[in-house]
Amino acid sequence: MPSSPNEAAARETIIPTETAYIPGSGRPNHRKTWRFWSGGCFAIVLLAAFARPLFGLINYAAGSQLYSYILLVPFVSVYLLYLRRDQLPKTLVTDVPLAVVSLAAGLGVLAFSYWLDFVRQRPSDNDRLALLTLSFLCFLAAGGFFFFGRGWMRAAAFPLAYLIFMVPMPDAMADALETASKYASAEVANFLFHLSGTPFLRAGLFFQLPNITIKVAQECSGIRSSWVLLMTSILAANLFLKTRWRRFALVVFVIPLAILRNGFRILVIGLLCVNVGPQMIHSLIHRRGGPLFFMLSLIPFFLVLWWLRKGDARTRQPE
Predict the structure, then answer these.
(1) Which ranges in the chain belong to alpha helices (H)?
(2) Residue pair 136/185 in contact by the 8 Å Cβ criterion
(3) What pLDDT, on the 0 to 100 scale, is given for residue 31?
(4) What pTM was estimated for this model as a whole?
(5) pLDDT tens-digit profile of 143-152?
(6) What one-character-per-residue DSSP string does 125-189 give?
(7) Closest Cα to residue 177, out of 127, 223, 225, 224?
(8) What is the predicted pLDDT for the residue at 30?
(9) Cβ burial, residue 151 (10 Å; 0-12/13-18/19+)
């Protein structure tokens, strides 16, 4: 039966529809593009607002033996994000509550740093940089939750959390770790001297050897290399291990390893002073030997990592 002219016209009518993103069609998702561009602009504005303390942090880290590793942390985080680029969610949803919490935390830390100036209890340059850097990271997290959402931030949690190592250790924390490390290292050195058969007398941090008396000073704590070793273990555990307990075991392992390394360094310097001469206390192996002993500590570290990774592979093989 022939259709009426009105029905034929209705079938030929093209109804315009709203442009939508079709995965794999090559057409851009305009909303997602807008979020990324807006997030990038927010990051640029944030960097400009914190330009002075961030440049101060760069100069401080570049001239510090303890905090020189800070210069590498942002590059490590960016590389980790690049490795996880395929795991990041494609759907971006604003998470206002967590954005507000992060923003409030950043404002609180920033206000506290200025309040200390107001009450004339100005912190040290190190502590002030720590506060301002922590505030910057909180604002950065707020932007992440607002523009990219909770799912995206969860997928990028480790690379972003690794940025916490940009924050210099507060002076009180660094002093406490150095003190604990030097006393623990002295105990290990005492044990190693006994094993070596070297005659000595000990009084606290002082070791009386046959031709010299050495003291385990604050500089002998090895806090920088120990902290870098801890950062390395956290990074390696996340990259190469899958089971949670093995990751935890690798990170915990570096604590006795760092103490053993420091005690071994004291033993080596002491034996050199006894067998070569007391002038070895001023040698390069004492003054600049930290990197050498750090490299030696990486040997047992990588052996343990290999063993844990091998066990990880056996555990996951049936799956």
Answers:
(1) 5-12, 30-49, 51-62, 73-83, 96-118, 125-147, 150-155, 157-161, 171-196, 223-240, 244-275, 284-287, 290-316
(2) no
(3) 65
(4) 0.83
(5) 999 999 999 9
(6) HHHHHHHHHHHHHHHHHHHHHHHT-HHHHHHTHHHHHGGGGGSPPPHHHHHHHHHHHHHHHHHHH
(7) 223
(8) 63
(9) middle
Residue 234 CB contacts under 8 Å (≥ 6 apart), including other chains? 162, 251
Residue pair 208/276 in contact by the 8 Å Cβ criterion = no
Q: Is 2 exposed, middle or buried (0-12, 13-18, 19+ CB in 10 A)?
A: exposed
Q: What is the pLDDT of residues 255-288, one digit of tens each?
A: 999 999 999 999 999 999 888 888 888 887 777 7
Q: Both tokens of residue 43?
A: 């990051």
> Which tokens hold the place of 65?
């033996």
Taking residues 185-201, report their average pLDDT. Answer: 92
Please, which residues bridge with residue 202 across strands? 207
Give the three-class secondary structure for 199.
coil
Who's near 108: CB < 8 A, 6+ residues apart? none
CB atoms within 10 A of CB 243: 13
Structure tokens at 305: 């990592």
What was the pLDDT predicted at 279? 86
Give the DSSP letter string of 79-92: HHHHHTTTTS-S--
- What's the angle, vertex CA 203, arms to CA 198 and CA 206, rounded to 5? 70
